[in-house]
Write a structure and sequence with these properties.
The structure is a single chain. This protein is of the alpha+beta class and 155 residues long. It has four helices and five strands; from the N terminus they run H-E-H-H-E-E-H-E-E. Strands 1-2-3-5-4 form a five-stranded antiparallel β-sheet, sandwiched between helices. Helix 2 runs antiparallel to helix 3 and helix 3 packs antiparallel against helix 4.
Amino acid sequence: MGIEQLIRRTGSSSCGPSVSGQEAVLRIAPAVAKSVPKLRAFAQSTGREWGADVESVDAMAIIVSELVANAYQHSGSADVAVLLLADRERVVVRVSDTGCWNEVPTSSRPQEEMTSGRGLHLVRAYASDLSVERGGYGTTITAEVSTVHVADLTR
């Protein structure tokens, strides 16, 4: 699977602003370690451009970092797609890959001694809602960040 499948998995083929008071931007990058800081910076600059409050921009950056790192480390996918959506009340971060993920740990909380495996727990801490879709096509994780500080997107 390649870029076209990632675009289908993220639910958007748009790479710029959308209509009806929403914004949407899509970035696709290789699923490698160097993509983590690049996609984090993309999330931060996009959040700032949209006028999101500092806490929301920070949450976007952390969520993107953790989910892209998971895709790079665990999926075996060649690429990872990050779709950012916003309206006046929330920002949605959707990260998709075309790999095959390992099972989610059954523990509801990471153990204190663990040095890894905290990514989804951290994402859950920053997201008001989280969903994971898995299948033969790859994995898509969608995290929603509630905010009332996104600038008027109907300009």
